[in-house]
């Protein structure tokens, strides 16, 4: 969670594992959208001698659908190359890394950024763009902030790009949630299977704290993403909403050369990972279909709609927390499809559901982050996004600090069903359910400017 090790096969391939994707109107440049895709989950900061890096053999992509068919109309491709200055040393760096071209930085990466349109037109936006190093410690990376700033590249027409390590900004209590659906703030209410393990509530524990990820971050003009370059302030205009997701692909064939330590890849790229809405594959798609889901485009997601309309977690909550969710239990037993979840996750919310807001992309059921670019950034953001009265946040896109775990837990628990069925009264608990975490549980704070995710933790101060 959000998409860390979410499927059996991709959990064995962390370099290609999409962990989170974000899309929001940039608060510091309101005529642009910021797109962020994270990979390589759960990085410990102290990871020498082989520090984390993007895969030269992986094609990373951020996709935009601007006509509602669940297929990419605009794609940004990232292709990486690793360079080794001295193959005879075991060291990542042989002295302080003071610049992106520092001769003491032995193993470094560059990348090519390419924009691809649905019709096949391809434009290289930048070549030999430098990544920053990993944040090693006060001797190896004495001024990491300066290295990261130098790795923010302008690539024409108001675009910025960054590719490198950042602090993990997604906060979640993995240790509790996957212990049979336990939520520490309410653990004394869990049925506990007769074990009587908990008698009191407890504060949430941020499993991802002091861990890093590798981020691809883009800031591009709104008109570069929308259908026919639309850019306006009419929230109800169908052209205002775009769909966003990310993928990673590998070559179809890999041959390992014996007695050489080398391998060779060939053939077309095959998708091995993707991510749109947070927690979709983890919580909604069943174990036997998770790898299949990772291989498909959002246009193929109709086959998974039944798991959204009748989610397993919604049926589990009244069992795991006896007597806490009677209204949800009755809704489950009625057999009614969860039209609220289908709208939030697969089609976007049409006009009229939430006053003054829509991010509907049409009838095609597709898992994508849906962002209405006509909604301006919030002056006072609410981490619960739309559920908290802030239409600039999730599920209208996703900002780096949005509490998507709480939002989705509450939605599954029935808090949003009243939007589509005015006769339904949600359980009071559905508006309180949470894993007990907020952005305050992220040690390295978010930035108020591009690339927004915080400075990565360094290995000297964060050895765990």
Number of strands: 12
Helix content: 10-25%
What is the first-to-last residue Cα distance? 20 Å
Count, helices: 9
Rounded average pLDDT: 96
Q: Pick out the low-confidence regions.
A: none
- Cα radius of gyration in angstroms: 22 Å
For the biggest sheet, the summary is: 7 strands, antiparallel
Q: Which shape, going by the Cα principal axes?
A: globular
Structural class, by secondary structure, is alpha+beta
Give structural notes.
This protein is α+β, with helices and mostly antiparallel strands. The protein has one domain. Helix content is 13%, strand content 25%. The strands form two sheets. Strands 3, 4, 5, 6, 10, 11 and 12 form a seven-stranded antiparallel sheet that branches. Strands 1-2-9-8-7 form a five-stranded antiparallel sheet, with no helix packed on it. Helix 6 (312-320) packs across helix 7. The protein is globular.
């Amino acid at each position: 969670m959000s998409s860390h090790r979410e499927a059996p096969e991709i959990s064995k391939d962390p370099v290609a594992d999409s962990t989170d994707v974000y899309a929001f109107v940039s608060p510091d440049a309101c005529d642009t959208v910021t797109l962020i895709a994270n990979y390589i989950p759960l990085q410990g900061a102290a990871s020498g001698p082989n520090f984390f890096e993007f895969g030269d053999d992986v094609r990373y992509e951020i996709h935009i659908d601007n006509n509602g068919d669940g297929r990419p109309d605009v794609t940004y491709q990232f292709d990486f190359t690793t360079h080794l200055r001295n193959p005879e040393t075991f060291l990542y760096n042989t002295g302080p890394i003071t610049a992106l071209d520092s001769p003491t930085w032995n193993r470094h990466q560059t990348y090519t950024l390419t924009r691809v349109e649905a019709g096949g037109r391809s434009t290289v936006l930048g070549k030999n763009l430098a990544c920053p190093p990993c944040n090693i410690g006060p001797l190896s990376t004495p001024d990491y902030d300066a290295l990261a700033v130098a790795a923010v590249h302008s690539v024409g027409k108001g675009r910025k790009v960054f590719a490198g390590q950042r602090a993990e900004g997604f906060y979640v209590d993995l240790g509790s949630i996957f212990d049979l659906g336990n939520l520490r703030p309410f653990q004394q209410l869990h049925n506990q299977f007769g074990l009587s393990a908990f008698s009191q509530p407890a504060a949430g524990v941020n499993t991802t704290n002091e861990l890093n990820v590798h981020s691809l971050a883009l800031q591009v003009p709104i008109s570069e993403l929308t259908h026919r370059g639309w850019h306006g302030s009419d929230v109800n205009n169908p052209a205002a909403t775009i769909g966003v997701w990310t993928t990673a692909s590998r070559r179809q064939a890999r041959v390992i050369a014996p007695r050489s330590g080398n391998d060779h890849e060939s053939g077309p790229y095959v998708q091995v990972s993707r991510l749109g809405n947070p927690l979709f594959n983890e919580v909604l798609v069943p174990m036997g279909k998770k790898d299949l889901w990772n291989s498909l485009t959002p246009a193929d997601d109709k086959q998974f709609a039944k798991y959204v309309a009748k989610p397993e977690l919604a049926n589990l909550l009244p069992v795991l927390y006896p007597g806490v969710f009677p209204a949800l239990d009755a809704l489950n037993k009625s057999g009614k499809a969860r039209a609220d979840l289908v709208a939030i996750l697969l089609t976007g919310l049409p006009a009229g559901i939430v006053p003054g807001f829509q991010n509907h992309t049409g009838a095609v059921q597709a898992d994508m982050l849906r962002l209405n670019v006509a909604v301006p950034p919030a002056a006072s953001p609410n981490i619960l996004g739309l559920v908290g009265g802030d239409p600039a946040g999730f599920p209208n896109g996703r900002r780096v600090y949005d509490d998507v775990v709480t939002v989705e837990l509450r939605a599954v628990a029935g808090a949003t069903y009243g939007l589509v069925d005015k006769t339904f009264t949600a359980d009071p608990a559905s508006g309180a359910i949470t894993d007990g975490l907020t952005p305050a549980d992220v040690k390295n704070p978010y930035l108020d400017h591009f690339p927004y995710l915080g400075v990565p933790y360094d290995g000297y101060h964060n050895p765990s």
